Amino acid sequence: MRANPFENALVQLARAARVKKFSPELLARLARPEREINVAIPVRMDNGNARIFDGYRVQHSNLRGPYKGGIRYHPDTDINEVRALAFWMTLKTAVANIPFGGGKGGVAVDPKTLSKGELERLSRAFVRALAPVLGARADIPAPDVNTTPEIMNWMEDEYEKITGDKTGATFTGKPLGSGGSEGRGAATGLGGFFVFDALREILGVRKGASVAVQGIGNVGAHAARIFEEHGYRVVALSDSKSGIYNEDGVFVSEVIAHKKKYGTLSGFPNAHTVSNEKLLMLPVDVLIPAALENQITKKNARTVKAKIILELANGPTTPEADDILFKRGIHVVPDILANAGGVTVSYFEWVQNLKREHWTEDSVFRKLRAMLAREARAIFARSRALKTDLRRAAFVVALERIEKSLRNKK
């Protein structure tokens, strides 16, 4: 039976509330989304038949600003997953200290089974179903697992056709020529590196340390390249089907090229084959889960050998695993901090769209580094003061900011 990520999210909330006291009203409001939308999406397939897809949008909290969160296309997507992701987005935008709340969306579909035309028709139909609750000041979607800048462009175009809104600010993560921001593609992976780099010395990791990345989709592939470019030794990479390991390191560009050519990592020369599960147990300095939820659990946390876990996926570590890792002295840099680069640059894109501006990549990355490094150091200091782990410290910082907004609205 698949673990319920929303139950894990609520456990994380309760654990943070035991570290510092918060108002019962705040905790009650965060324990359930403000709105949930389930839609049936009819799509005309290439063979002429109609197929109905299940779609979801969860608007968790707008106490600090418009709902903000990605849309994922994945066959296992369900309402509990989307609830959890929306909850984490509420915390993540507060950790990044940007004026958004949290939301998330998804469609239960394997996009690899669709033609490009079917994918576009699905994306546009999803927007038509959700258009009444979206908007640049209401709910601002973005890419997530298996969605792309091109898909965001279709969605923004459909929204403009429906509403006449020409700001381009309702969807972020768009292509550069269609109102997208410089640096958005690399933002989550690069933001993770900026957080790591701000904490590296404090956490006792040397430059050139070994790194394993679980999941080489957009986020994981960018993270692997960025760590390699900064002199770190990437020793293991995986996709959804297979993984490779070489303790002396691999060239990330060669691995990506192999994957692109053969559709798999299997057969990559001069490397051992390793499963996704075994990759998590490798003797590395930095482990980067960049795939899906519930990868590190109470069943395998005792065999993790990494010094630091940098969560670029959402919810890869369960609360029970957090306790085991904390007792073992393994630092978990939580998702709501480590992967906040994507939503931060989405915020930059939103600002640029509304102001009709276009910032340089250097400007975007300077702003991103400054914001995330500041928040990373603040959360580490809070973890020391509270004698707790980085996740609970991050939750405390986020909850304080959300509670302030709640008080200001009264």
From TrEMBL:
<keyword id="KW-0520">NAD</keyword>
<comment type="similarity">
    <text>Belongs to the Glu/Leu/Phe/Val dehydrogenases family.</text>
</comment>
<feature type="domain" description="Glutamate/phenylalanine/leucine/valine/L-tryptophan dehydrogenase C-terminal">
    <location>
        <begin position="181"/>
        <end position="410"/>
    </location>
</feature>
<dbReference type="InterPro" id="IPR046346">
    <property type="entry name" value="Aminoacid_DH-like_N_sf"/>
</dbReference>
<dbReference type="InterPro" id="IPR006096">
    <property type="entry name" value="Glu/Leu/Phe/Val/Trp_DH_C"/>
</dbReference>
<dbReference type="InterPro" id="IPR006097">
    <property type="entry name" value="Glu/Leu/Phe/Val/Trp_DH_dimer"/>
</dbReference>
<dbReference type="Pfam" id="PF02812">
    <property type="entry name" value="ELFV_dehydrog_N"/>
</dbReference>
<feature type="active site" description="Proton donor">
    <location>
        <position position="104"/>
    </location>
</feature>
<feature type="binding site">
    <location>
        <position position="92"/>
    </location>
    <ligand>
        <name>substrate</name>
    </ligand>
</feature>
<dbReference type="InterPro" id="IPR014362">
    <property type="entry name" value="Glu_DH"/>
</dbReference>
<keyword id="KW-0547">Nucleotide-binding</keyword>
<feature type="binding site">
    <location>
        <position position="346"/>
    </location>
    <ligand>
        <name>substrate</name>
    </ligand>
</feature>
<feature type="binding site">
    <location>
        <position position="68"/>
    </location>
    <ligand>
        <name>substrate</name>
    </ligand>
</feature>
<protein>
    <recommendedName>
        <fullName>Glutamate dehydrogenase</fullName>
    </recommendedName>
</protein>
<dbReference type="GO" id="GO:0004352">
    <property type="term" value="F:glutamate dehydrogenase (NAD+) activity"/>
</dbReference>
<feature type="binding site">
    <location>
        <position position="188"/>
    </location>
    <ligand>
        <name>NAD(+)</name>
    </ligand>
</feature>
<dbReference type="InterPro" id="IPR036291">
    <property type="entry name" value="NAD(P)-bd_dom_sf"/>
</dbReference>
<feature type="site" description="Important for catalysis">
    <location>
        <position position="144"/>
    </location>
</feature>
<dbReference type="GO" id="GO:0000166">
    <property type="term" value="F:nucleotide binding"/>
</dbReference>
<dbReference type="InterPro" id="IPR033922">
    <property type="entry name" value="NAD_bind_Glu_DH"/>
</dbReference>
<dbReference type="InterPro" id="IPR033524">
    <property type="entry name" value="Glu/Leu/Phe/Val_DH_AS"/>
</dbReference>
<keyword id="KW-0560">Oxidoreductase</keyword>
<dbReference type="InterPro" id="IPR006095">
    <property type="entry name" value="Glu/Leu/Phe/Val/Trp_DH"/>
</dbReference>
<dbReference type="GO" id="GO:0006538">
    <property type="term" value="P:L-glutamate catabolic process"/>
</dbReference>
<dbReference type="Pfam" id="PF00208">
    <property type="entry name" value="ELFV_dehydrog"/>
</dbReference>
<feature type="binding site">
    <location>
        <position position="218"/>
    </location>
    <ligand>
        <name>NAD(+)</name>
    </ligand>
</feature>
